[in-house]
Amino acid sequence: MTAPDIVSAVTLLAGATFCLLGAIGVVRFPDTAARLHAAAKPQTLGLLLILLGTAIRVPADTVMALLLVALLQLTTTPVTAQIVGRAAHRIKAMKRPNVVLDELGTRDQPPAPPSTR
Amino acid sequence: MAVREVLRQVRCRRLGAVGLVVVWVLLWGSLSPIVLLGGVLVAILVIGVFPLPALEHRFHLRPLWILVLFARLLVDLVVSAVTVGWQAVRYGSRTRTGIVAVPLHVDSDLLIALTANVTSLTPGSYVLEIDRRHRVCYVHTLPLHGRSDAERQRREVWAVEERITRAVGTDEQVRVVLEARRRRERT
């Protein structure tokens, strides 16, 4: 086993672990809005690590395509989270006992205004 | 759609068009003339079919701060994956969450969009609603137990806003953000 093999093995396994954590979160978190956290963060990091592990082992000209996958993942994940999260909030699909603060639902009490102007 | 309108859109969004061609070339993994030509055609088609309003604000690229932004983003992504993963395993369905309103200081579509995007990749938070007119981001936070967590969340988003503004904002916008931080620290 050479050094790249070991690095690749470690990153692939770490990536798979983070994907697993994301999956556990999707199953265990109380409501849609919370599940999105699990789908967004551990999942993204897991994918990035797996791409890194793959990049070490494949020919250099395919690495650019992997970079593209990483870039698209980083730019689209937040958009998905926002759209689905907003929909979940609007149809009141959030479990109340778990939501301790909802400043979007109670917009009558806005926080301190921006300190400029 | 009128050909002239498409040409105008392409001219206004040169940078976006180049980006689309680059993506196309990366997808095909070759730089042959036919791929390049295809990329240019696809870019023109995409821009023609999905016209967008022009970004009304100028921006300023600062390479060093962009590097800081990316480095911090990677660190945040690791921390946030670990935090969320730990919450899932340890607390699961008993996890407490909340939505925090964060009033932003900058008044630019680009900076607000970037701030929302990066906030969604930092520990335990994603933006689920943007009130563009009042410049307020509504951030879903996990875990969140009370008011003090909400305050911490607000400070975190403001820190993201500051990093983004330093990386791509104009000098005037940087001044606004730094001024806001000085005021916060005084009170």
TrEMBL record, chain A:
State the UniProt keywords alphabetically.
Answer: Membrane, Transmembrane, Transmembrane helix
Q: Which residues cross the membrane?
A: 6-27, 64-85
Superkingdom of origin organism: Bacteria
Q: Tell me the GO molecular function terms.
A: sodium:proton antiporter activity
Give the protein family. Belongs to the CPA3 antiporters (TC 2.A.63) subunit G family.
PANTHER family according to UniProt: ANTIPORTER SUBUNIT MNHG2-RELATED
Q: What is this protein called?
A: Na+/H+ antiporter subunit G
Q: Which organism is it from?
A: Longimycelium tulufanense
TrEMBL record, chain B:
Write the record's keywords in alphabetical order, separated by commas. Cell membrane, Membrane, Transmembrane, Transmembrane helix
Cellular location(s) = Cell membrane
A Pfam cross-reference name: MNHE
Q: Which positions, given as ranges, span the membrane?
A: 34-52, 64-86
- Molecular function GO terms recorded: monoatomic cation transmembrane transporter activity
Q: Classify the protein's membrane topology as the record does.
A: Multi-pass membrane protein
Q: So which domain of life are we looking at? A: Bacteria
- Give the CC-aspect GO terms: plasma membrane
Q: Which InterPro entries match?
A: Cation_antiport_E (IPR002758)
Q: What family is it from?
A: Belongs to the CPA3 antiporters (TC 2.A.63) subunit E family.
Give the protein's recorded name: Na+/H+ antiporter subunit E
Q: Which organism is it from?
A: Longimycelium tulufanense
